[in-house]
Amino acid sequence: MILIKNHLKSYPITHTTIQLSDREIQLTIVDDPDRFLDKLSREDSEGWLFLPYWIYLWESAIGLARHISELDRPLSDKRVLEIGCGFGLAGITACQAGAKVVFTDFEHDALLFARHNVEQNGIDSAIFVQMDWNALCFQDKFDIILASDVIYEEQNWEPILSSLQNLLSPDGVAFFSEPNRKNADGFFKCLRDNGFTYQKSTCSISEDGKTIQVNIYKVEHVYSKF
């Protein structure tokens, strides 16, 4: 915990409370993330630009967390994978509902924030793994996969689809959230064309004086009975 706190000192941090239907979650997040966007952006050897979107607490993460907290099915002992976990909000919600959660993100610092947030909410049983969607590192299947705001770029669709095909159990379910982007339909068409079905719902998230519509997608294998 001390090492994590020391590392987080390299960022300006602030604290926020996320209100769910029946409880609150305490989060430590990056303060004024716009100031760090250019500083932390980088380009790899092949010219791909990596933008540090994890430094933002997106409305989609809040929407997904609230959706998870209101599920009418118990999550006790369910194996849950959160991909692109960022600050870990959705995964924390699942942990508090009794699930066994593996938090993953491509960015090491995002995982440090997620671990810190998990611990400050009194959770001691989570697992944290740095993972590239293009190089999956799990052999087991998961009952539930969580993903908030990860389909903003079409180049990510194929590896995310591969993640679902390889990591979601036959009777499992994935929950995706996104802020009503125009290109989202293309991703979900790809899912439908590859043996998945989905149901869509919407919610409104009001933060900092603005209201954002967030879409929640429940994704299952065609023959799932979740």
Write the layout of secondary structure elements.
Elements: H1 2-8, E1 13-19, E2 24-30, H2 34-40, E3 42-43, E4 49-50, H3 59-69, E5 79-82, H4 89-96, E6 100-105, H5 108-120, E7 127-130, E8 142-148, H6 157-167, E9 168-178, H7 184-193, E10 196-207, E11 210-221
Parallel strand pairs: 5-6, 5-8, 6-7, 8-9
Antiparallel strand pairs: 1-2, 3-4, 9-11, 10-11
Walk across the major sheet and give the strand order: 7-6-5-8-9-11-10
Which residue ranges are poorly predicted, with pLDDT under 50 across at least 5 consecutive positions?
none
Q: What is the mean pLDDT?
A: 90
Overall morphology: globular
Radius of gyration: 17 Å
Largest sheet: 7 strands, mixed
What does this structure look like?
Helix content is 30%, strand content 33%. It is globular, with a radius of gyration of 17 Å. The longest helix is centred in the middle third of the chain and has 13 residues, at 108-120. The strands form three sheets. Strands 7-6-5-8-9-11-10 form a seven-stranded mixed sheet, with helices on both faces. It has a two-stranded antiparallel sheet with strand order 1-2. Helix 1 packs across helix 5 (108-120) and helix 3 packs parallel to helix 4 (89-96). The chain has helices at residues 2-8, 34-40, 59-69, 89-96, 108-120, 157-167, 184-193; strands at residues 13-19, 24-30, 42-43, 49-50, 79-82, 100-105, 127-130, 142-148, 168-178, 196-207, 210-221. The chain contains seven helices and eleven strands.
